[in-house]
Structure formats: C-alpha cells, structure tokens
Amino acid sequence: MTERNHSADTKNASLSSSTSSIGRNAPPALKMGSAPSPHSSHRSSFAEHMRGAPTSPRASRQPSLTQQALQELLNNPPTKGGDSKFQGRDWKTVRLREIVDPELVRFVEYDTSVEDATSILVKNGAPNVVLLREDTNSRHAVGTFDYSDLNAYLLLVVGLAQPEERDIASFDELARKGREGKPIPLKDVKEVGGNKEPLITLDENTDLCKAIEVFGSGIHRILVVEEGSQNVVGILTQLRLVKFFWENRSSFPAVNQLYPQLIKDLDLGSKTVMAINGDKPLAAALELMNNEGVSSLPVLDAQNNVIGNISQVDVRLLTKSTSLPLLRSSCIHFISVILSERGVNDGKDSFPVFHVNPYSTLAHTVAKLVATRSHRMWIVDAPSPASSGPSTPAITPAIVVPPSPITPLPGLAGPTPVTSTAPTHLAATGAVAPSISASAISAMPGASLSGRLSGVISLTDILNLFARASGLNPHDPDEARRARRRSSSSSMRRSMDSSRSESISAIAGRRSSVSEREKNGPAPQGLGISRGRGP
C-alpha cells in the first residue's frame, strides 16, 4: 500500500513538473493571445516599417539609350543581314531571277468568278495580285486582278461607278448580277478598272538596271518570264525592289550613301497630294482612289493634320455584305475598323505610322515603307492646334453634286478638285456619314504623333532617285502622274457633262431602276457587294 502511494506521488510530481515546464516555455502563439500591457514597449506599425523601405532600383536606373543614341537609331535603323551572295557585287549585275520567288505567282482563269479571285487575293497577301490566263495549262499572263480592280468592282456594284454613256447598260447588268449573288467571271469585269497600267514583262536574265528604270518611271509591277518564252516565273514589285536594296544596303555603296541624307536635302517627293477629311464617308475615299489612280489616301482633320491612312488593300474588309454599311460611315470610323482587324487577326496593337517629316533621313523613310508595306509615305510639318470649332458638315442626302471629297492643300499647286455625282443610294436611304467632333478626331492614336500634311514620297520617287544616283536615266515619274490625272479628269468631265445635259429627274429616273431592284431584290450572296440599307 505504501509502495503504491509512493508511486502515485512520484507520478504527480512528474506531471506537475512537466506542466510547469510547459507554462514556462509557452509558444509565442499562446502569448500573443493575451492582452498587451499598457506599459509595454511601442511596436512600429506596418506603415512605419514601409516608410523606411529602400527605394526601387528602377527609380535610379539610367535609360538604356541616351537621347542622342535614340535619335541615331531613328535616323539609321538597323537592317537584317543581307544575302551573302550579293556581297561585293555591283547591283547592276544582279539578274531578276535572283530576287523573285516563283512560289508567289498565283494564276486564275478568265472564267474564274470575281468572288473566287478575291478569296485568293485576300488569302495569299504579297505581292497582292492574281494573274489571269486563258486555261489551266498555261503560264502566260494575259491580265491581272488586284485591289484596284476589286475597288472598282465594289464601286460598280453599289452604284458609284461612272461609266461612259455607251457602257451604262452593261454596267447596270453587272451590278444587278453582283447584288443577286450570281457568279460574275473576271472576263466580264476586265474593263471596269479603267486606268490600269500596262502589263510589263522582262526576261528573267535581265539585270536590275532595266527594272529600276521601269519602276522609276512610274510602273508598279513587272512580270518576270522565262528566257525565250512568256511563261511567268516571278513578279517583281516596287516594294520588293526597295526592300532588296534596303536589306542589302552594305553591298551597294552607290545606294547606301544616300540613306543618311535628309528628305529636304534630296528634294524628294511631291507637293501635290490627294487627301480626304476624316468626317467624309468611306465611299468618297474609294471613289477618289479609283478616279485618281492612287493606291492610298491620307485622312486629315480640319487643320490638315494627318490622323490616319486608307489604302486600296483595306477594301478587303468590305467584301462581305455585313460590312457594306461601312461605306456610309466616316473615314475615321473605318480607320478604327482597320486597327481592330490588325489586333484580332494579326495580333498587332501598335498604331502604324505612315508619315515622316522633311528632316527625316532616307533610311528612316525607307524603313517605314518596308515595315508598313506601304507604297507611299506622307510628309508632315509641325502639327496644327486642334480645332475647337464644329467639324466639317456631313454630306446631306441629295441627287445634286455634293462638296468635293478632295481636300486641296492650301498654297500647294495641284489639280482642280474633282467633284462627283452624289451617291444616289445614300440619298434614297437618307444615310449620311456620322458627324465627327474635333475632340474625337484629336483623340485618334495618330493625331498627336503627326503634323500638317505638306507632301508625299512614293516608292516610285525612291527608285527614281536610286536610278539617277547610279548613272541611269529613268523617265520623269511626274509625267506619268500628270498623264494619269489628265485621263481621269477627262473621263470624269465626260461623265459630269453627260449628267449636266440631263434634268435632275432624268438622272433620278435612270438611277431609280437600279434603286428599285435594290429594294425589291433578293438578299445579297457571294461577295455580298450590294447597296442594301445598312444601319
């Protein structure tokens, strides 16, 4: 009994000792639960600890490029390493077959529908042309189909084409088929494009001297054919040749020495520029490009600041019937559609810049042309202050001639602004271009980056410069431009004179048959290029 009591006392003592030990060494979590003493030492708050935190190293980090280095980079952009096979060679000895890619030649037949040809054109991209041939066994090109033809066809179907009097019946028939979604073979629309440049072919063993003389004279595309035949093995464009010189600049000293020079010192470009106001309807821009034979237009605000760019290639966004209401929207709205399409399809969220200034170097200008795959770069001066006044008035529905869609530059010599017959389908539906405020225009991504339009530099100008610097004698490209404008102006004058000789009711009557078919006809199919009432 005594032993049992002693054992119990021993256990109790051990337990008491263990408990007291735990109490003396309680974990911090248990102590934190007790109320702090009012006399305990002050503890710093989290915010106080943060006040003494060291500054971010980014705050004291020096910029990786100085302003001078950045300017040098802009003046002389880097290029990809040139092809080693051209090192040490005179560019005038390079043969056409060395710089063209046979894989980029795409044929369709004359019987191919406009819809199918358009699909091939849009899907394949550069060089943005489809060649026409008689049959599938031939590689002999008898014509071309490109975005200028697509633009002309679109204007035809929506009723904005200006055919000669003798062609009105056939054009109306083509327009009817287009609205009804019936297949239209390319052979039926080959004359719709109007002022197409001649089809130029050169032998594959021809050197670049001949090609640059042709391009420097205003031709935009050359078909390269097999020696001794007319089989096409390549397509050489102005852009491809400019890119070739740019990427291989170190191999060609005669051309390379031009790149550091300023635009103003080279006296490069033209002061005559066709442009359009941002609040004009897109249809007016398409008409202007078609009538004047230009591939792109600068879009301006009320002070002639460049706020965007519309090109013939952008017509690809109008090949579905659901896109046709864009024809009645403003040019500014269409620019936003172009930028959205770049983001969705190309994954690009950058705003493409299509302008330079007189103090830009040739290298900077060429780098932009190559990067944006453009044919023209706008020359701008310092930007003008944004207008606080009302925007340019929207076009009012009417059958009479509206204000000119062309914006002549003040103080610059140029052709007389050309007016065109008001789109009667706009008049019939009461649709007008949305009014755009000055603040909306100034909010465009490009508005704060550009300046007042003062000129234009084209690929033709640059290749003409390269030719002259290398001792060649290309024709004056301004001659071709003046001839094209004379041809366009003459064609439009004939159309307008014909309109003036008729009464307004006669004009309305001639067009109303088309309008009635439009109202009562079936829904558009295929390309969907119709004059349907859009929102």
UniProtKB/TrEMBL annotation:
GO terms for cellular component: cytoplasm. Residues 57-66 have a biased composition (Polar residues). Its main location: cytoplasm. Residues 501-512 have a biased composition (Low complexity). Keywords: CBS domain, Cytoplasm, Repeat. GO terms for biological process: cellular response to glucose starvation; regulation of mitotic metaphase/anaphase transition. InterPro entries: AMPK_gamma/SDS23_families (IPR050511), CBS_dom (IPR000644), CBS_dom_sf (IPR046342), Ssd23 (IPR016711). Residues 1-66, 469-535 are annotated as: Disordered. Belongs to the SDS23 family. Involved in DNA replication and cell separation. This is Protein SDS23. It comes from Cochliobolus carbonum (strain 26-R-13).
